[in-house]
Design brief:
alpha/beta; UDP N-Acetylglucosamine Acyltransferase, domain 1; 2 domains; 7-stranded mixed sheet; 8 helices; 8-stranded parallel sheet; Spore Coat Polysaccharide Biosynthesis Protein SpsA, Chain A
Length: 439
Amino acid sequence: MVGDGSYYEGDYSLDPAVVAEWLDELKALVLAAGKGVRLWPLTENRPKPLLPVGGRPLLSQTIESLVKAGVREIIIMVNYQASMVKEALGDGLSLGADISYVDQPSPKGTANAVEAAKDVLDGEDRFLVVYGDNYYGPRAVSRLVEMSRRSSSDLLIGAARVLDASQFGRLTVKDGVVGGIREKSAKKGPGEVIAGLYLMDQSIFPAIVKTKLSSRGEFELTDSIQFLIDQDRRFRMVLLNDQEWLGISYPWDLLGANRLAFDLMESARDGMVEPGVHVHGMLHLSRGGVIRSGCYLEGPVFIGENAVVGPNAYLRPYTVVGEGAKVGAYCDVKNSILMDRAKVPHLSYVGDSIVGAGCSLGAGTITANLRFDDASIVSMVKGRRVDTGRRKLGAIIGDNVRTGINVSLLRGVKIGSGDWIGPGVTVRRDVASGARIKR
């Protein structure tokens, strides 16, 4: 409904000539300081925004979305593993952006993160705030930018419709105007939730000063926004579609975001494909990648730089083989993410799983990914049982894990970084980092 200015949900095209001058003044603050403890063990050695989706870090894709929307001056808020973020993105020139960094002294929530950028945003009439640890499709930011041009005074909140709004900030909306926000309510059910994408102005900073510590022990940006709403500051909702956003709260959410990224990926054959390889569907083969004879690939499949697949391996849809990784002879990999330098050399099955960087899985390592009763799989997160909502989920494996021959990893288990799992072991529950497990 654009005509009455209530909210924007349709297709669009930006007119660069019309908005160029306005965009030159629009900056974006990207929040990338958090650790992401619910994504253990994947965030033990890297910040959440650098987790890979579709073969590339979440944060890189967010920066590209901003650039495509015409927003090039970007401030990134960092803290946990800040040096990794700075090394990954640098000054942003390779992405067409002008990136600067602000270190958040002691992370105390999203409101605290925005407050830490007050000095660098001083004098900006309006600016974007973007969570750096969500998946955004390339048009998500453009929707907000377009609505910003249409609405000269209202502030904006990017939102999405989900089946269970209890895990997010649920919005109360009437005629496109946000009337209230409730963070992670106990009430399950569908609804519109915050997608971590905002158009703000200077009024947010005095609101943050008046924001109280939440029950989670953080200063929540949603509480600051609610304060402004209570003071009659109007926020309009910009609704993103199912392909444009996915919140990354738990490790298995990466598999869902991976699918969305694949739907937008283009095929490439920049590596070597030996004779006798069968490819059906989309294949993105990066420079230096090798697919050896006898392999069967059902796309979409992504193979990173200098990765090796085969001989005689089977890769099924939505599989990512990271940079320098290996999938060897008679291995079957399905709907999984193998991070950089992960090795599955021979005679193994990896299904609906995430394998951390530098792992080495011994021959006969099998990931179970399905319950006999077909019920959704439950996983432990911070000592609490969480329904993943997934019928199929394999193992979540941290970095530099080694398994011996004939190891079985039951559905939904998480293996901490640096673990050694001895030959013949069946892993039935999560394993702490640095463990040595014998039969």
